[in-house]
Amino acid sequence: MNDTTPPLRTIQRAFEIIDLLMEEKSIGVAELSRRMDLPKSTVHDYLRTLRTMGYVINDDGQYRLGFKLLELGGRMKYRNRLFHVAKPELERLVEKTGELVSVNIEESGRFVVLHMEEGDESLSLGIYPGISIPIHTHAAGKVMLAGFDEEKVDRIIEEKGLEAVTEHTITDSDELKAELEQIREQGFGVDLNQQVVGMGVVAAPIQVKNRVIGSVGVVCPTDRLLDEAFRQGIAQEVQKCANIISVNYQYSP
Hints:
InterPro entries: GAF-like_dom_sf, HTH_MetabolicPath_Reg, Tscrpt_reg_IclR_C, Tscrpt_reg_IclR_N, WH-like_DNA-bd_sf, WH_DNA-bd_sf
CATH topology of the largest domain: Beta-Lactamase
Strand order of the largest sheet: 6-5-4-9-8-7
GO biological process, one term: regulation of DNA-templated transcription
Order of helices and strands: HEHHEEHHEEEHHHEEEHH
Helix content: 40-55%
CATH superfamily of the largest domain: GAF domain
Protein name: IclR family transcriptional regulator
Domain HTH iclR-type: 8-67
Pfam families: HTH_IclR, IclR_C
């Protein structure tokens, strides 16, 4: 089987149900049937199977996701070497900045938060480990793009597009590539209001043997990042953090 082989429809539908349940706190069979354009009996069979496996809970006819998925996500994170290496450095970065900080990876052309730590000054944005967003809308995603070869960057742009999440999001490939070149020159990235209006990000890449494996990002209110001295101070701290993680990842047992 290769990437062009059509997916198994039964498995695809099961995950479509999980995706719909992620959007809602709970939902009934009739509504799921309507949204999936499937008979209620078919939807019920899928739900029954997922409930038997622990992924779905039935609360008086309303279905919701079970915490089995949280267990899976937790295991994935705690088995990840980058998480263990980065966590103490993120804690130190939070102590210095008081802001929301995260270590991030690229997966399937998207930006994914692997782990985050919150400080006293953190914005409340509903960010959580595992959240996935368009990679071009976030400085911590763009510093990873800046470290990828041109062929990979072009492939991500072609497959994922450059959607506008806010009116400030870069949606032109030439403009994005110019920003990536600037990131390479200065060693860090900054964006304002491109993913969330009112939110700014300062980020630096984590590189091991000339390969970008992730990034560190500091999330701040946009108005604080307009102050050049503050912005440069955050940039120095985030670069220092990313460099320490890079070295520790390479040489820790």
